[in-house]
Amino acid sequence: MPHKAGPPPRRRVKSVGMTDAISITRDLVRCPSVTPADAGALGVLENILKAAGFEVHRVTFSEPGTADIDNLYARIGNQAPHITFAGHTDVVPPGDESAWTHGPFSGEVKDGFLYGRGAVDMKGGIACSVAAVLEYLKDNGGKPREDGQGSISFLITGDEEDVSINGTIKLLKWAAERGEKFDHCVLGEPSNVEVLGDTIKVGRRGSQSGTLHVEGMQGHVAYPHRAANPVPDISRLIVALSDEPLDHGSAQFQASNLEFTSVDVGNAASNVIPGQARAKFNIRYNDNHTQESLRKLVEERLTKACGNRIRARIAWEPSNSNVFVTKPGPFTDLAVAAIEAVTGRKPELSTSGGTSDARFISSYCPVIEFGLVGQTMHQINERTPIADLEKLTQVYRGVLDRYFA
């Protein structure tokens, strides 16, 4: 772990790894690795990292009912401090390929942009980290530090954009069983909102889904006294659970929110009172709660709203999307310094947005997310400016210089 933040000894700033970052991005984009297919993407990284002296492992995980997923772990050095660069090479489907200006798996460079599915999310980020590490090792005699201390690794999965069962969560466990210990992690997800250097993601809210079930009694609409209509009851409960805030935010997080996303009674007849009503919801919660305390709070509010008359229950869905935060300290300070040195911007330490594999990594070491600008991710004509690939490579190089200084 770095003892303090701040720049390394002054030296001439030079352009690092730019061409490599671009060519690696293109090679990765040209692999149509739509989850769960690898399509050669991990092989591209394996060849590059082996040639640079990394010990590389390809690890496949499977589970009944899911696709086999190939993953990659590579490390150079065997001493602390150990920094790992994490990411995923799988991508979402391209959609209507005829709608793309340039082929979704062409990796074409046009007018200063590199086009292709995954250019932003997140093959470009992986390529920049690889290019930065290779250039750093070249300048340091092929070792993380001249005294033999330090380690650098890559933790790459092919299962982030789908169910995330056979990817990072299992790769981390596999690494831990081998005795691997990570001190810090940089995840190359597209964290920036408008321009490179505006945002580091230092945490994410947890995610918990469930279904509210309200019991009634089916009957004919002409004889309501012989039935019990659950529709008005579920409406009252939805309002009761939605209206009262779960909290008012915390030092690092915005307020938690509960959102109902669907209501269903399974009834196609207009002259029948349904026997049951269901409503799905999702909660994004902050560090005021654990998964257990959150469920307890919602259950207590439901019991109060039901009183002695309404019969209702919640069926909670399993969730591995727990809240986490990497609080400000030496590691975030050195990342901010590296970003500011390249972009001239001091990034916001943000906990906004959805889930990522950082939720798994945070159980093993502090993790931050910093990658490209996310405006075109998952869109038709996903693309990234060539200049951003160059700058992100420089940022990662700056992180390495400061980390091992």
Write a structural description.
- The protein is of the alpha+beta class.
- The protein has 2 domains: 18-204 and 323-403, Aminopeptidase (3-Layer(aba) Sandwich), CATH 3.40.630.10; 206-316, Alpha-Beta Plaits.
- It has helices at 18-29, 41-51, 123-139, 168-177, 230-243, 291-306, 330-343, 358-361, 386-403; strands at 55-61, 69-76, 82-88, 109-110, 113-115, 151-157, 184-187, 199-201, 203-204, 206-215, 219-220, 257-264, 272-273, 276-285, 311-316, 324-325, 348-350, 367-369, 383-385.
- A 6-stranded mixed sheet has the order 1-2-6-3-7-18, with helices on both faces. It has a 4-stranded antiparallel sheet with strand order 12-14-10-15, covered by helices on one side. The chain has a 3-stranded antiparallel sheet with strand order 4-5-19.
- The radius of gyration is 24 Å and the shape is elongated.
- The termini are close together.
Major β-sheet strand ordering: 1-2-6-3-7-18
Look at the structure and give the mean pLDDT.
94
The percent range for helix content is 25-40%
CATH-defined fold name of the largest domain: Aminopeptidase
Major sheet summary line: 6 strands, mixed
**Uncertain stretches:** 1-19
- β-strand number: 19
| Count of DSSP-assigned helices | 9
Secondary structure class reads alpha+beta
CATH architecture of the largest domain: 3-Layer(aba) Sandwich
For CATH, the homologous superfamily of the largest domain is named as: Zn peptidases
Shape: elongated
Tally of separate domains: 2
Following the backbone from N to C, one meets helices and strands in this order, namely HHEEEEEHEHEEEEEHEEEHEEHEHEEH
CA gyration radius, whole angstroms: 24 Å
Bin the strand percentage: 15-25%
Top-tier CATH class of the largest domain: Alpha Beta
What's the end-to-end separation, in Å? 11 Å
